[in-house]
Amino acid sequence: MKKKLCMAMAAMLLLGSMPVYGTETYEEATLFTATVGTKDFLKNGVFQPLDVEIYIKDGYVMLPLRTFMTAADENATMIWHPFQVAQAEVNGHNAVFALEDNIIHVDGKRIDVSGEMEVKEGRLFVPLRNWGQILKLCGYDTADIFWDRATRTATVVVSQTKAIKGEEAAFSMALTDKYDDIENIGDGFFIAQKYMEENFGLGESLISQENAFFLLDAKGKELLKFESGSIRRLRDWGEGTLLVSELEGNKETVIDYSGNILVSGYNMVAPFSEGIARVKTVVDGESKFGYVDRSGNLIVPMLYESAGNFSEGLAAVSLEYDYTEKSDGYDLHAAYGYIDRTSKMVIEAKYKDAGDFFEGVARVRTENGVGYIDKEGKEVIPCQYKWGGYFKNGVTFVTEEDGWKTWLIDKTGKKLQLVAEGRYAVYANDSLDRDDTLKNGVLMQEEIVDLPDGDHKHMFQYFDETGALSYEEYRIKKEFSEGLSPYHHSNLRKYGYVDETGEWIIRPAFDQAEPFEGGYAVVANEIYMEDGARDAEWGIIRHPEM
What we know:
Blueprint lengths: L1 H14 L9 E11 L5 E3 L2 E2 L7 E3 L2 E5 H8 L4 E5 L3 E6 L2 E6 L4 E4 L2 E4 L5 E3 L2 E5 L3 H7 L4 E7 L4 E11 L6 E7 L4 E6 L2 E6 L17 E6 L4 E5 L6 E4 L4 E5 L6 E5 L4 E6 L1 E2 L6 E8 L2 E8 L4 E7 L1 E2 L7 E12 L2 E11 L5 E7 L1 E6 L2 E6 L2 E6 L4 E7 L1 E2 L6 E5 L6 E5 L4 E6 L3 E4 L15 E8 L5 E9 L2 E3 L1 H7 L7 E5 L4 E5 L5 E7 L1 E2 L6 E9 L5 E9 L4
């Protein structure tokens, strides 16, 4: 408990170094902890490679030079010279460690060593107390050292002034508290909400029939307005349409951006896809699905008990559908096939589940598992997998029942790479058995590892079609669009935008930032009122290339 308290206090010291926004620089703080008698050396809570124990000599904590040096600067180098002299380059500065004389020089400036350096188990150990002065001479602003006698843990807090990279965001609609939420629906259009109550901070939402809804253009001009209490909800419904959920009767209406009614009179209208929308009616508790065009004309009769959206000219439908939840999962009884726009059944109805077509193939499920068919109904990859994703750039991920092996495969079913074993596989934006459209094809692998004390921890790995991703690469790719990705700066604690290499393109200045779509992105900052209540300001920024 004391160790956790010490770490928490040290973390507070780390967080206490805050940037001054609006300047061209910020203060970056890094927290190092070293526990005597262990190999526990951490940088911002992450273990650093250490194969020898930290120890105390003559009252000084001793730490291997190379370990601390490379933790402070990942590009640091170190070489040995004759007569027990080590030379290191840290943060662009030259440091020399002379063991026989017990002297340290940084860029020619002498440091009188507290304690005594020594070589042990093939490693050069330097008393930790000297690192404050060493790092200051190596260009770091401060390096404060704290010692917790109870836990035998030394904590070093290092700060450095760094430049804020990236250009300032260009606003098409300035930040304003006029709205409580804004959603980018593409092509330069946005849905905004104003809640019935005032002062809602970021992360807080209010679902109420008293909310007001607006359709905005990229400059913030209100194209449509639904007064408070007039509708239940306004949503983007694809291909230049909006869904209006009425207050009573569980009815839904689809309109265009000018407010013209396109589809009405149904219990449910699905988003438009390829100019066609799936609709549902409920009569005496029985649901039936059909399809309408943008003029509201019924082009496929209300025949089906279950139906999907049109994709690549075809839609999955079933004349029978029974979904029953069980304690260990669910029982699905259905017979899916595919129809064309004329309602002709072009692929036989024989699948327990069927998804949309991507790159000419669709994911289907039989009693034997998940597989893939082409648009003629040919089974191009046998139904044999426990789970499968959607194809992107000619490849996808599948998981075998035996051993939960997850593979990257091509459209012939050829196994290109074993990704992982015994892990729960799920796309970052796709649950195990849903037909949601994938976003950027990023796969997340989760494994629950049991610990000796009876507890457990969750471990994750990330992949795309090119192979394994680091966590930083995953953070960039999962919301990457139009050449940029919203990204959180850990020291500034603000969001900006980076390119695919992680280079800052739009400097971090926001408490919330959404992906670019149609050349625009929604951003927001949290503000505090005089009475301490939280509120938020929302704005719209342009893509730097516009």
